């Protein structure tokens, strides 16, 4: 087995109810895939995998993730926790300040977890198919964000602070009951796509035309 093969462990779709103990005995792992199983929990021992850069826990039955997940400070590439039963994330995850991609879609979040505010290097954030009624003002701190996916939540507006996301290319608001968007969106210099499909409650302001004239694709 090559060294590169040893650094990746793929246990996708193995019908697992718990993670085998020998997984925690592999401290050189850089990528761990546990998606499409029947996991109800993950051991706090995950903190032993100090070199992890990618972790996939998607499509399971998790109601919580371990506090010790925040110890994986080398987790920089991908963290997938989508399609579970999560309502919150531990505050320790705010230490994952190298992380570039986070997917927490298809869970039961009523608010965007505060832990995300510490993930200052996020490039892509996916929170679709949850129950978000609002976005926190601190969303503007994620200044490296290029894609923000919020499809099918309960958002009636987004905060003025999204205007601080100067690297933002795409924002997906499909299927939300949006009534108001801040004019600060029109000032985003790199915005390429604003998706407002399946939004029946929104009356387009004049600045939407300004976005379109400069080449931003506005779907509505």
Walk me through what this model shows:
- It is a single chain.
- With 220 residues, the chain is mostly beta strands.
- The chain is built from two helices and ten strands; from the N terminus they run H-E-E-E-E-E-E-E-E-E-H-E.
- The chain has helices at 3-6, 207-213; strands spanning 8-10, 31-33, 54-56, 78-80, 101-103, 124-126, 147-149, 170-172, 193-195, 217-219.
- Helix 2 (207-213) links the parallel strand 9 (193-195) and strand 10.
- It is elongated.
- Residues 1-5 have low confidence and may be disordered.
Euclidean distance between termini CA atoms: 51 Å
Instruction: Assign the structural class, choosing from mainly alpha, mainly beta, alpha/beta, alpha+beta, or little secondary structure.
Output: mainly beta
How is the quaternary structure best described? single chain
Biggest sheet strand order reads: 1-2-3-4-5-6-7-8-9-10
The sequence of SSEs as H and E is: HEEEEEEEEEHE
Reconstruct the topology from this structure.
Blueprint: H1 3-6, E1 8-10, E2 31-33, E3 54-56, E4 78-80, E5 101-103, E6 124-126, E7 147-149, E8 170-172, E9 193-195, H2 207-213, E10 217-219
Parallel strand pairs: 1-2, 2-3, 3-4, 4-5, 5-6, 6-7, 7-8, 8-9, 9-10
Key terms:
single chain, 220 residues, mainly beta, ten-stranded parallel sheet, 14% strand, elongated, disordered N terminus
Summarize the structure.
With 220 residues, the protein is mainly beta.
């Amino acid at each position: 087995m090559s060294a590169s093969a040893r650094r990746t462990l793929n246990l996708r779709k193995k019908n697992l109810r718990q993670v085998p103990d020998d997984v925690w005995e592999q401290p050189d792992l850089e990528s761990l895939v546990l998606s499409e199983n029947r996991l109800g929990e993950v051991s706090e021992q995950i903190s032993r995998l100090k070199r992890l850069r990618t972790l996939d826990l998607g499509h399971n039955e998790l109601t919580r993730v371990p506090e010790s997940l925040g110890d994986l400070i080398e987790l920089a590439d991908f963290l997938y926790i989508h399609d579970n039963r999560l309502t919150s994330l531990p505050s320790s995850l705010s230490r994952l300040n190298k992380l570039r991609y986070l997917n927490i879609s298809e869970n039961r979040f009523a608010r965007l977890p505060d832990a995300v505010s510490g993930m200052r290097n996020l490039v892509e954030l996916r929170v679709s198919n949850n129950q978000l009624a609002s976005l926190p003002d601190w969303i503007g701190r994620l200044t490296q964000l290029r894609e923000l996916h919020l499809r099918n939540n309960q958002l009636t507006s987004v905060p003025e602070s999204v205007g601080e996301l100067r690297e933002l290319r795409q924002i997906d608001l499909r299927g939300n009951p949006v009534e108001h968007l801040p004019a600060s969106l029109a000032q985003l210099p790199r915005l390429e796509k604003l998706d407002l499909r399946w939004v029946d409650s929104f009356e387009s302001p004049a600045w939407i035309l300004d976005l379109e004239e400069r080449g931003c694709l506005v779907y509505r």
